[in-house]
Design a protein that fits this description.
Blueprint (H helix, E strand, L loop, with lengths): L2 E6 L2 E6 L4 H7 L23 E4 L4 E3 L9 E4 L3 H16 L15 H9 L3 H7 L16 E3 L9 H9 L5 E4 L6 E4 L15 H5 L5 E3 L7 E6 L8 E7 L2 E7 L12 H5 L14 E3 L5 E3 L2 H12 L7 E4 L6 H14 L5 E2 L7 H10 L8 H4 L10 H4 L5 E5 L3 H4 L1 H12 L3 E5 L12 E3 L6 H14 L5 H7 L3 H7 L5 H8 L3 H12 L4 E5 L1 H4 L4 H14 L9 E3 L6 H6 L6 E2 L3 E2 L3 H11 L11 H9 L5 E5 L3 H4 L3 H10 L2 E6 L11 E4 L8 E4 L5 E4 L12 H10 L11 H14 L27 E7 L6 H4 L2 H6 L4 E4 L1 H6 L7 E6 L3 E8 L7 E6 L23 E8 L4 H11 L1
Parallel strand pairs: 1-5, 15-16, 15-24, 17-18, 17-20, 18-19, 20-21, 24-25, 25-26, 29-33, 30-32
Antiparallel strand pairs: 1-2, 3-4, 3-5, 6-9, 7-8, 10-11, 11-12, 13-14, 13-26, 22-23, 27-28, 29-34, 30-33, 31-32, 31-34
């Protein structure tokens, strides 16, 4: 990019070609007053404060005027002052100037302009006060306030919501001195479509938008958001060993300087009064005693020593670091002699991993893909490339609710011309942006995706040269597609064949393309086959050449990392099979031990084996099984049956109530380590705080435990030393895969189907403010989260005699719950939708599990509705209210 020479206030400077005068000035430390300009936004030129004078006497807005070679201008002439001063004085006259008590004190651009122009606010407001009108401050949001009385109408918040958050929750309303910025219907911000991301607050130049917590950090520590698997890079602001604020890393290729509400405001859980601070030993049913670490660890060693090999199982955590999880699985295998190791990734990532392995795809660390000859030579990450892809296909995920920052990137890609295909039975926010929205009956995604494959092959839209060179079984795969004629697929899915054809052509004709999928297609009995079908699409079109072509989404920060580290019953780290004698010998040599040659049990099988008395000791790390597993009653039976349980967590959860020993774990902010986000990118977490009380990092606890078993392979002084061993393991276990397997699939009906008694399918969606135990410990998120509503189409509601905002009973074949009805035309007939709150949905779900790679129908079930008869007391109150 070329450089431009110009002169400002007699000073010769340089700037880049295409820069505006204001950008050139600020780059060279020359201040020009401005209010409506922000470097993250398109120039607006509405405040007229940034006027400058060219050498021909012309006044121009510096924020919108590009620099030219040889340009000469002044930023502070008497003529400029005569024009600019009345503008600022008018703003001050209508501005609440209580600067001393303002939440933006010291950060206000209006204060800076007044000081620069030497304007006395008291003199101005004595002679020019235009209105005594005072607008009530909106403090309905738990994290920030809106004070219209301090608004300077710069429009930065409106532009931010439109350009960055892409929500359009606010806009200018009214005219003249009644002009203001408001939500739709001028409702409180907490009751609007605002998602509380805080992007407008950090850009507001005055005190009109300000955070309620104004504590200033004394230092900042780089970290990674601990919520979902996107892995937004953040800086934690620290003061007095507390997190006082969070800001996004603007240099991050992951989140490009943006955060969602949880990332910006959701760190309060680290300082929750509910945190465990000391080891506890259970004394009776409801009583626990605080003990020393030595006493707790000695008791664990004494009991674990009784129940080794097949009598032991370990549940690792998708919220722990790679180092924590590597040490956890190593402890189970080396010390306890057991491969009974699993995590809750079983119900989100395991179907993807199983499908990748059987198809011939490498997974883990993003290292193996670079060794594969059919991958692009450069390292590619989806979050770097998403805005440049030609097509995005989303299946089984409400991106704006579950992964809002990633959804922003997809919106940007669409704005740049990318095509968007969405597969969802229910309308999501992104459906508005979709070129094709396919609405299959819940549980029929496999037939739909294979139908799209059929169109691609029949119309020869596939990449022939790629399939001939890199596919092992194209002919076998083509034959099975005869089972997915579009007539049959239309009958199964309810999606018109024309729409299936159009979606298939759109995906096949757009290169490169990326596919995202979530628990909406994996948390079913045929979840692995659904992933296979998506991979088939990527192979046929050669999109699989790009490492960003296939993207499983996770609601936990380190689901992929937990799997990469070997927290699976049938794989060592880096997905090396337990059954391979060569692999086993390599690990035995590195770990200096003899390893169990038999694959272990998955979480569902661990529960069954514990109930059967085969597994007697459980080590549960960072997981609340009673809320995460279906059915919860079965988990309760298993936990009661176990002889000895250790719960290691930050909080005393429902699972810990059954534990013999409870160990306090440090939070993500109190330890260092790495995680692997949903795109396979390894990210570093720095220690920002001292551990609360006597809590310790998970890896440190496990290593102390291992030392008591007198094994030398657990002597580590830091997480960095553990990471060094992890990389040594990976280097010793390279894997080369040169060809892919297209996977022939057969459609089977979902386990849950409707009938005359249960005519409605109920599915779940995640609430943007509710994300498990962390969000439950943040008061502001609890205030904002949606209530336990069930969304019903008005026609279905009419069939059951249900009205809006009515408390009703929801009954499935397996149980019942209560919720408040919300009638919604965007919900299709025959379908009902609930916000997913961990554990609340479980009583309705099918407890039957089929096979190791199978999962229960966690996302859907067949239901009917019942009205709840009012009690006599309530009936009396209602009648009295009418009198």
């Amino acid at each position: 990019m070329g450089r431009v020479n110009l002169m400002i206030n007699g000073q010769e400077i340089q700037s880049w070609q295409g820069a505006t005068i204001l950008e050139a000035a600020l780059e060279n430390k020359i201040y020009i007053p401005h209010l409506c300009y922000h470097p993250d936004l398109k120039p607006q030129g509405v405040c007229r404060v940034c006027l400058v004078e060219l050498d021909n006497g012309q006044f121009v807005a510096s924020c919108r005027t590009p620099v030219k070679e040889g340009m000469v201008l002044e930023t502070n002439s008497p003529e400029l002052d005569r024009v600019r001063r009345p503008i600022i004085e008018m703003i001050i006259a209508n501005h609440h100037m209580d600067c001393r008590n303002c939440l933006k004190k010291g950060q206000c651009q209006l204060q800076k302009i007044m000081a620069y122009m030497k304007i006395d606010k008291h003199t101005i407001q004595q002679h020019m006060r235009l209105s005594l009108r005072e607008i009530l401050v909106d403090d309905s949001n738990p994290f920030f306030i809106r004070d219209h009385n301090k608004c300077v109408m710069c429009g930065i918040c409106v532009s931010t919501c439109r350009e960055i958050a892409k929500i359009n929750a606010i806009d200018f309303v009214g005219r003249g001195n009644k002009l203001k910025i408001a939500t739709f219907g001028d409702s409180e911000i907490a009751n609007s479509k605002c998602i509380s991301c805080g992007e407008c607050v950090i850009r507001c130049p005055v005190g009109a938008l300000a955070f309620k917590d104004t504590r200033k950090p004394t230092k900042e520590v780089k970290s990674v958001c601990p919520y979902c698997g996107v892995g937004c890079d953040i800086y934690l602001g620290i003061k007095d060993n507390q997190i006082v604020n969070v800001r996004a890393d603007k240099s991050s290729s992951v989140n490009f300087g943006s955060l969602c509400v949880k990332g910006r405001f959701g760190m309060e859980f680290v300082h929750s009064p509910d945190r465990l601070k000391d080891p506890l030993i259970r004394q009776g049913k409801d009583k626990s005693e605080k003990v020393s670490w030595d006493e707790a660890l000695d008791l664990i060693v004494k009991n674990f020593s009784k129940y080794k090999n097949e009598e032991f199982a370990l549940i690792a955590s998708t919220k722990c670091t790679n180092e924590d999880n590597y040490i956890a699985q190593k402890f189970a295998r080396v010390i306890m002699g057991s491969n009974n190791i699993d995590t809750m990734a079983r119900f989100c990532y395991a179907p993807a991993i199983s499908a990748f392995r059987r198809t011939g795809q490498c997974v883990g660390f993003g290292l193996n893909q670079e060794d594969n000859p059919c991958f692009s030579p450069q390292t590619e990450h989806i979050l770097d490339k998403i805005e440049k892809v030609s097509c995005v296909l989303i299946a089984g995920a409400n991106m704006t609710r579950s992964f809002p920052v990633l959804a922003l990137k997809i919106k940007r890609a669409v704005n740049r011309g990318a095509k968007l295909i969405i597969i969802s039975p229910n309308e999501t926010e992104l459906c508005i942006n979709a070129d094709k929205w396919l609405k299959p009956y819940p549980g029929t995604d496999l037939a739909l995706l294979m139908g799209m494959c059929n169109v691609i092959v029949e119309e020869e839209l596939y990449d022939r040269s790629f399939t001939e060179m890199y596919c092992n079984n194209f002919n076998e795969f083509s034959e099975i597609l005869g089972d997915f004629s579009l007539g049959r697929v239309e009958r199964i899915t309810g999606v018109p064949r024309v729409l299936i054809e159009e979606a298939a052509r759109l995906y096949a004709g757009s290169y490169p393309a990326a596919i995202f999928w979530g628990s909406g297609i994996t948390q079913h009995t045929n979840g692995t086959d659904n992933v296979h079908a998506l991979i088939n699409l990527a192979i046929l079109t050669a999109n699989i050449k790009h490492s960003f072509s296939l993207n499983p989404l996770s609601g936990q920060s380190n689901s992929l990392g937990a799997c990469d580290m070997g927290c699976l019953p049938d794989y060592y780290p880096c997905y090396q099979p337990v059954t391979s004698s060569d692999v086993r010998e390599t690990f035995e040599s590195m770990w200096n031990c003899k390893l169990n040659p038999d694959p272990g049990l998955t979480i569902p099988e661990i529960i069954d084996a514990t109930i059967a008395g085969k597994i007697k000791a459980l080590y549960i790390i960072g997981t609340d099984l009673t809320k995460s597993f279906v059915p919860a009653k079965k988990v309760d039976v298993a936990l009661k049956k176990a002889k000895f349980i250790v719960s290691q967590d930050m909080f005393l959860n429902d699972t810990a109530k059954y534990a013999n020993v409870i160990l306090p774990a440090a939070s993500f902010a109190e330890k260092e380590g790495t995680i692997i986000n949903t795109e396979g990118k390894t990210q570093k977490i720095e220690r920002a705080l001292e551990p609360l009380g006597n809590s310790r990092p998970d890896w440190s606890i496990i290593c102390e435990l291992a030392k008591r078993f007198e094994h030398q392979g657990f002597i580590f002084g830091s997480a960095e030393e553990i990471l060094s061993e992890i990389f040594t393991v990976i280097q010793h276990l390279p894997e080369r895969i040169g060809k892919f397997n297209l996977f022939p699939l057969q459609y089977t009906h979902p386990a849950e189907t409707t009938d005359i008694d249960y005519p409605i399918i109920l599915t779940t969606e995640r609430d943007i403010y509710n994300y498990g135990v962390f969000s439950e410990k943040v008061e502001g998120l609890k205030i904002l989260k949606s209530k336990n509503y069930i969304y019903i189409n008005p026609k279905d509601a009419d069939d059951f005699g249900i009205s809006d905002m009515e408390e009703i009973r929801i009954i499935s074949r397996h149980g019942s719950i209560q919720a408040e009805s919300r009638l919604s035309k965007s919900t299709p007939t025959g379908l009902a939708v609930m916000n997913l709150e961990k554990g609340k949905f479980n009583p309705l779900l099918n407890p039957v599990l089929n096979g190791i790679s199978k999962t229960p129908e966690i996302k859907m079930c067949a239901i009917r509705f019942e009205k709840i008869k009012a009690s006599k007391k309530r009936q009396k109150r209602v009648s009295e209210s009418y009198v």
